[in-house]
Amino acid sequence: MSLEITIRPERLALSAPFRISRGVKTHADVVTVGLRDGEAEGWGECVPYPRYGETTDTVEAQLRAAALRLAEGEDARRVVAELPPGAARNALDCALWDLAARRDGRTVGARLGRSRPGRMATAVTISLDSPEAMRAAAAAMADAPLLKVKLDAESPRERLLAVAEGAPEARLIVDPNESWTPDVLDRMADLVARLHVILVEQPLPAGDDLALEGLDYPAPICADESAHVAGDVGRLLGRYQSVNVKLDKAGGLSAALAMVQQARDLGLGVLAGCMVSSSLSIAPAMWVGAMADAVDLDGPWWLAQDRAGGCRIERGVLYPPQLGFWGEAAPASR
Q1: Which domain does 293 fall in, by range?
Q2: Could you report the average pLDDT of every consecutive run of 10 residues in the chain (334 residues)?
C-alpha cells in the first residue's frame, strides 16, 4: 500500500537570540513530515543542519524524492534507509515510528521493549554573549542542575567563570562548537579542573582533532561533529571519551539507537543532544535520553511557543509530552 506524505517547512520564533561560535539565530527552521496510511497518520520533525550544507530547500528536495517512491508503493523502511544520514531521514524515520504506533496500536515503548521515558534532568543552554550577560543568564537558571555553556576562542575563561559565578552549584558542559585550538584547550585545562565541568564538547574542528589523541584532560571530551552515525564511533577511540547522539545528525531514532549501542559496546559515554526545535523533535529523542549518561534536550525551551501537548522544562528538568503526542495510539494533529 502506498503512503501519502505531507512535507511542511516551518519557521518557529525563538524567545531570545541563540548564539554559538558559528553565528546567531532568532528562529528555528524546521521541516515536519506527515505520513498517512488510511485513517492513521504519523509525524516527524527535523532541523536542517547548516554545518553539513543542509537547508530547508535541500531537505525538502530529498523528502519530495522520497514521496514519489512512497506513492509508488515502495517499502518505506527501504526508502528511509537509502536516504543519506541527516535531517530528511530523521523526519521520515520518526514519522514512520509514529505512524506504526497509531496504525497498529503498539507504542514505541512496546516495540522497543522498554518503558516510556519519564522526566529527566536536561542541560539548559547559556548562549554565547558577554561575560556579564552570561553570568546573569546563569543566575536566572541557577536552580537547574546542568548548564551547557556556549563558548568560542574569545575570552573563554572570563565567560566560563562568569557562568560558574552565576550558578555555583550547577554542573557544566562546555561547548566551543569546534572553535578552539589545541593551545586554547590547554590554557583552559586548569579552569576546567577547578569547576564542575562534566564534559567538554567538540573543542577542536572535526577534521583537526588529532591533538586529542591520548590527551589526559581534566574532564571527558565528547565528540559531536566528529561522529554522525554508528559507523563513525570506532574512530573516536583514543581521542574522545563520549559521543553526542542527535537524531538530526544520525538520521532518525533508528540510527540514533544503533549509535548508542555502538558507543556502549566500545565503552564510550553518551550525551543525548538536539538542535533548537519543537517537542516533535524532542519526544523521540527522549528515548535516547533515557539511555544516556547526560541529556541536552532543551530545544523547545528556546521557542516563543511550542506545540500543544509537548514537553515542558522546569528548573532544568525535562518532562515528557502528553500521552498520545508522539509514538502512541491517539489522534494526531500537528
Answers
A1: 120-319
A2: 90 85 82 96 96 95 96 94 97 98 96 96 96 97 96 97 98 97 98 98 96 97 96 97 98 98 98 97 98 97 95 96 92 54
- Is the Cβ–Cβ distance between 176 and 202 less than 8 Å? yes
Within this chain, do residues 47 and 187 fall inside the same structural domain, yes or no?
no
Angle between helix 279-289 and helix 87-104 axes, rounded to 10 deg:
80
- Number of structural domains in the chain: 2
Residues paired with 11 in a beta bridge: 29
> What are the strands of the beta sheet with 120-121, ordered from one edge?
120-121, 317-319, 312-314
Q: Which residues pair with 134 in a beta bridge?
A: none
Last residue of a domain, one of 70, 89, 112: 112
Which among 112, 134, 163 is the end of a domain?
Answer: 112
Residues 95 and 207 grouped into a single domain? no
Q: Do 100 and 176 fall within a single domain?
A: no
Active site residues: 150, 246
d(CA 333, CA 41): 9
Residues 296 and 123: beta-carbon distance below 8 Å: yes
